[in-house]
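Hey L., structure's done. Input below.
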Amino acid sequence: MKSAVSSLLSSKNSAFSRSFLQHSSKPISQTTFLISNIPQNTRNLYNQSYPKLQIRPISTESSVMASASMSELAREPPALPLPTPPLTKFKIGLCQLSVTPDKERNIKNAQKAIEEAAQKGAQLVLLPEIWNSPYSNDSFPVYAEDIDAGGDASPSTAMLSEVASHLKITIVGGSIPECCGDKLYNTCCVFGSDGTLKAKHRKIHLFDVDIPGKITFMESKTLTAGETPTVVDTDVGRIGIGICYDIRFTELAMIYAARGAHLICYPGAFNMTTGPLHWELSQRARAMDNQLYVATCSPARDPRAGYVAWGHSTLVGPFGEVLATTEHEEDILIAEIDYSILEQRRASLPFTKQRRGDLYKLVDIQRLNSH
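Output:
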């Protein structure tokens, strides 16, 4: 009898074996097993041979509970609940800017666009990737600023801070080249409505691509990759930050969703090869997969530039629907975000509660190590 039990225990395909492996961190006498397909005679065999290990059929209610617990196990640490935002509805401004080799002009142009967006009711303004400098490895070191030093060492962020404070708005300041010691980063600064620097995101995934006959660009020739996902609480909700190529990595967006982000902002400069194919598709996928808002902002297209941006700054809703978008020229887009829709969408299509933690898991290393 016991040999038959041992044989079943050792079978990798048996329901009991799978359940045992999942719970093996506890002493067997303290473990509850939820097993739905063990025949009655097999249960009797186990119960006679191992009195401390009683196997019972699970009820429908237990099965639902088991399913719910599997969803929690799909993310480690478990997902944070969606926080109550400071406001439900507000307007976002996407400033699609022309970028020139004249840094001072770029800064003045960005300031003017931010002021116009705020005048039109925007409480959150998003700028493009690398808006104060041409997008090139030759330009990054020349236009780079020491953001931590501030003041004259970082005129771009000094302007953003001053304007945010003066207009009482939140600014996700696109990105600029940042110098820190002997390293360069592609960095996005978030300023609160009081002008304080609330977060600094350094582009995590560097844009190193080689599409023969189309485009070759290697950011890693000059830039260093950031190491930290960025989520920041602001006057307009909890925002996750990514920069351009970061949008292709769904794991980063999933981490932001698990940290309770209402919105992910991606300043970006997709090119004329990948832009038509993947720019809108990536935005809609990240929004739909995580049931949150996604906002992107690109530089305006300049056919004479060494790197030509695709444009098409966009706001996407939590069902993956395009709510508003620009074309390729310089523009300021004002659109409304309504956070009450997030809960509606998640209730209508509750796949965040249907994940299979018994089959796969997303691990947020930063949160895991902080415990």
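The radius of gyration is 25 Å. The chain has eleven helices and 17 strands.

-- N.
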